[in-house]
Amino acid sequence: MLKFDQEKYLQVTRGAATLRCEIEEVVEKVSQQDYKNLFLLGSGGAVATFYPFEFMIKSTSSIPVYAEIAAEFTVMNHQQLTKESLVILSSLSGTTEETVAAANYCKERGATTIGITGEYHKPLAEIVDYPLVNYAENDFAGDSNQLILYFLIFNLMHKKGDFPSYQAFAEQLEALPEVLLNVKTEAESKANEFAVTYKDEPYHILVGAGNTWGRAYSYAMCVLEEMQWIKTKSIHAAEFFHGTLEIVEEDTSMILLKGEDETRPLMARVERFAEKYTKKLTVFDTKDYELKGIVPEFRKYLSPIVTSTVLQRVSVHLEDQRNHSLETRRYYRKVAY
Q1: d(Cα 289, Cα 306) in Å, to the nearest integer?
Q2: Which of 72, 139, 215, 298 is the most buried (most CB within 10 A)?
Q3: Which residues does 86 contact at the CB level (< 8 Å), separation at least 6?
Q4: What's residue 336's pLDDT?
Q5: Number of Cβ atoms within 10 Å of the Cβ of 241
């Protein structure tokens, strides 16, 4: 595979999987405190990674859950945050200003905090009650964080009596690094084809729904816009027909992220429209990938991480075809704002 370090990838993702015991110990402790609600706080790609889990909690569990953008959360006076709240925050660097501020805000109000990050001895890890640390760089951080969240979120639901299949699910999660490696291999040809075809495309519409909506939101903003400087509109499939459809023409690039959860019919509706009105349609569908060893009942939950692992290959090929490094920035962490 192009620009892919298999050993590094497996080291990072297996590292996340080996946190299972530590995560389960944390879940046991916080569950004994009988928390009343759950907050998922982050900025940019980190909060977008929480959106699929918010959806899965809402559709699977009775836990009241709120995924919030850290900067807005600290100024909105959220009335549901109390000392009986459980808060999960995420920042790969552990230094994201808005997320660190949110962690302090929650601590001051007596909430219990868990931090997902890539390094100890950074502000987020120092502030939270329970740091969960697995070193990763930007290229593989998405898979690492999601693996940690699967163990954490689904065990929290299990402890509430809402996900009795947790043990079986967790055992399959431990094998996910190798499964995802196979997905990357399967996706390589399509990723290259997309990059070759669309390397000079000036604008994309990116559509997701359910537990792929967070991927659509983050890939548009954090990769196509931030890392490749390509103008992109992200839109939820359920909202596409309430405005965005009017800018579709036969030369409008549309990218659909199809998962396997309950919202799949919403994506199918957009796909039918796109097939009729644009000649530039790309569909990344998690059903196209084997996921060997994953039982059918669990596939829908894995759509976010399968989608992101496929899109990682798209990013690498776009970088290569466009001769535009994924690390190049003009403003982000470069200038004061």
Answers
A1: 8
A2: 215
A3: 30, 33, 35, 37, 38, 39, 111, 112, 114, 156
A4: 87
A5: 14
Q: Which among 291, 256, 296 is positioned nearest to 185, based on CA atoms?
A: 291
**Does an H or E element contain 39, and which?**
strand 37-42
Note whether 46 and 92 are within 8 A (CB).
yes
CA distance 93 to 192: 30
H or E, element range at 47: helix 45-60
Q: Is the pLDDT of residue 97 over 90?
A: yes
Tokens 């951080």 sit on residue? 141
Query: How do the domains of the chain map onto residue ranges?
Result: 6-174, 199-322
The pLDDT mean for the chain works out to 96
pTM: predicted TM-score of the whole model, two decimal places: 0.96
Nearest to 173 by CA among 153, 157, 190: 153
* Cα(274)–Cα(262) distance, integer angstroms: 21
Cα separation of 196 and 270, whole Å?
24
Helices assigned H by DSSP within 83-209: 97-108, 123-127, 138-159, 166-174, 176-198
What lies within 8 Å, CB to CB, of 276 at 6+ separation is none
Residue 129, both tokens = 């009650």
CATH fold match for the domains 6-174 and 199-322:
yes
CA distance 56 to 40: 13
Q: Which CATH superfamily is domain 6-174 in?
A: Glucose-6-phosphate isomerase like protein; domain 1 (3.40.50.10490)
Query: Could you report the per-residue pLDDT of 296-315, keeping only the tens digit for each?
Result: 999 999 999 999 999 999 99
What share of the chain has pLDDT > 90, as a percent?
95
Higher pLDDT, 249 or 334: 249
Say what the pLDDT of residue 140 is. Answer: 85
- State how far the alpha carbon of 133 is from the alpha carbons of 8, 19, 22, 103, in Å: 17, 8, 10, 16
Architecture of domain 199-322: 3-Layer(aba) Sandwich (3.40)
Q: How many residues does the chain have?
A: 337
